[in-house]
Design a protein that fits this description.
Blueprint (H helix, E strand, L loop, with lengths): L1 E4 L2 E7 H7 L8 E3 L7 H7 L4 H10 L4 H14 L12 E3 L4 E5 L9 H5 L2 H11 L5 E7 L3 H10 L5 E8 L5 H8 L6 E7 L2 H13 L1 H9 L2 E4 L6 H21 L8 E6 L4 H11 L4 E8 L4 H8 L1 E3 L20 H9 L2 H14 L1 E3 L2 H10 E5 L2 H15 L5 H17 L5 E5 L7 H7 L10 H10 L5 H4 L11 E3 L3 H8 L2
Parallel strand pairs: 5-15, 6-7, 6-9, 7-8, 8-16, 10-11, 10-15, 11-14
Antiparallel strand pairs: 1-2, 1-3, 4-5, 12-13
Helix pairs in contact: 1-6, 3-4, 3-11, 4-6, 11-12, 14-15, 17-18, 17-19
Bound molecules: pyridoxal-5'-phosphate.
Length: 493
Amino acid sequence: MKYHSTRDTNNTVTAAQAIVKGLAPDGGLYVPEYFPLISMETIDKLCRMDYHRISEYIMDLFLDGPLSQELDNMAKRAYGLNFDHKDIAPVHFTDEGICILELWHGPTSAFKDMALQMLPHLLTNSIKECGESREVCILVATSGDTGKAALEGFKDVSGTRIIVFYPKNGVSDVQKLQMTTQEGGNVLVCGVDGNFDDTQAGVKAIFADTDFAEKLSERGYVLSSANSINWGRLLPQIAYYFSAYCDYVNFGGLKLGETVNICVPTGNFGNILAAWYAKILGLPIAKLICASNENNVLTDFIATGTYDRNRPFYITTSPSMDILVSSNLERLLYAVSKDPDEVSGYMLQLAQTGKYTVSDKLKNEIITQFAGGWCGQDHAAEVIAELYYEKGYLMDPHTAVGYKVLKDYRMKSGDRTPTILCSTASPFKFCEDVLRAIDVHPNYSGVGLISLLSEKTGIQPPKPLAHLGEKTVRFSDVRAKGEMCDVVEEFLR
Ligand SMILES: *Cc1c(COP(=O)(O)O)cnc(C)c1O
């Protein structure tokens, strides 16, 4: 399979090149040249496979050469005992025709693990295939979940190193401790005296510094990112929609071939785009329901065809959805328009004015396939309480946003299609807000809240979170934002 940019279809690259480069030279995102169709007969076969085999089947459609040959190995290592559930992405059925797809059974208890347990294997094999002999150093600026998931994915992966910068006061206590206690011989975690924007700007400046790149190259290192726009992060995510559909069929809640809706708590538009790709591949999906929090740029876009990031930025209890520019939307615009010039035009307007309006043709197509909605944090908290007290099911604030938007959509549209709802984080990752939602108000904060939430609900926390308090802090350094480059240089001596 060949890939090209969303902004230029003339220059093609291999899967390995797309994964190594991340972003196309013209600033566009890499997309596959075509999507093969998976027959219902094949979906029936997938329904008798383990998760890692489903993942292997789906991913193999888009890979070739050495990457394809290594896939069995990669999938086994990415989706094995590193997950705390044998189904990897298990489902929970409610009595309302909702199938909650739990994407947080990986080592860091958030959905990023689904992709970041696979990406290091894809990347190291791609690097080899591209003839790169330098050691790769992954640089990440994180506002929470991504940093830890990338650390767990890349720890002790030979031929790689990873440095994660986090804003000193911009991550939760649990998230910070998850990172500062990170194990592995090839990892470095460093706090930055600044906010997330400062941290991200620092990392971007390092990537843009060609002299610095030259210097590192002489020492045998090349920098790379584990960004959510990388094809190697998107591709592994398509598999769990097939796996969830099969679980729904195997459970008896659906007949093979019957359509489902999919509802996704959305930030950068990666997860829901993977669902849309699953639909293009032949999974019987009707509507894709895109759930946002107060940062509801996407809700407005789906309703009006105008994307406008010129608006206040809200910090909410679902921080991984606090995003005003959803990068992966560019891939949807390309897939629907098939016109790289049209996409380039919108992206130029976005860069220059912070907004663009798509053509009527594009808008109509998007409205047919997607429904959008948003939910404020107070309503999300009510939903957490309602589900917990009425059904004994505890969900995190991101998932709660999705659940509320789904209920509102059903009410408004009358559409009662069985729906797969993505649950993107363990409630134990957001103890403080979850406890408050179920009306528990402790007078302390920090990791002690994990045991408190467990005590109050009788639900076991994921093991890595339960033992977080006992782990040794390995990385306590906090540096000025002007020193980030020095941190990298010292680590790559
Ligand atoms: C990253 C993340 C999201 C958003 O996913 P996108 O692919 O960026 O849309 C939602 N919830 C949680 C918990 C996340 O970590």
